[in-house]
Amino acid sequence: MAFELPKLNYATTALEPHIDGRTMEIHHGKHHQAYVTNLNNAIAGTDAEKLSIDEICKNISKYPVAVRNNGGGHFNHSLFWTLMAPNAGGAPSGDLAKAIDAAFGSFDEFKKLFAAAGTTRFGSGWAWLILKDAKLAISSTPNQDNPLMDVAEMKGIPVLAIDVWEHAYYLNYQNRRPDYITAFWNVVNWAEVDKLYKNAMDKLLKEAK
Ligand code: MN
């Protein structure tokens, strides 16, 4: 079964003015589609065709670089679209808010550190909020790597991510990556981040039993 481009849960223009429609159209319809097509080509006729994208990422060191780049691209973008929503932003609540305070001191401090991870990632890559050893942590990865990959410097379960490739912001923000990251806070889908955090905690608890 070949991998497919997931549909967006909102119109490409729904995140304006923070993320413009043209960027969303090209980012989802062209960039993400290319990762899907190239991933399918790279795994055609191999056992990886039977695996989930998560399973492929977890053992990514076993695969050719085309699988790492395009498999990572597919996983990362599929997650990224769900982490944004129209009429979103604001702040997390409940257990997630408590976990953020526990790990970083405050929500504002967390935002600073997460933005710094995105701003200082040289070239193309991603910044992440991950669950690592039952605690939240911030990391960043180059290219289309992600914290699920066995090659990642800091491994964990992703709960929030921002794409800091220029293709994610250049049309609207040109070289101003920090402005794009600031705008991102207005579209973060905290309900989804909360769900991912709960699922990740449940998974850790089950594994510990
Ligand atoms: Mn991208």
Number of helices: 8
Mean pLDDT level: 97
* SSE pattern, N- to C-terminal: HHHHHEEEHHH
**Fraction of residues in H or I helices:** 40-55%
Cα-to-Cα separation, first versus last residue? 33 Å
Biggest pleated sheet:
3 strands, antiparallel
Low-confidence stretches: none
Strand order of the largest sheet: 2-1-3
- The count of β-strands is 3
Residue share in β-strands: 5-15%
Distinct ligand kinds: manganese (II) ion
Shape: globular
Cα-atom radius of gyration: 17 Å
Query: Structural class, from helix and strand content?
Result: mainly alpha
Descriptive keywords:
8 helices, mainly alpha, 209 residues, binds manganese (II) ion, three-stranded antiparallel beta sheet
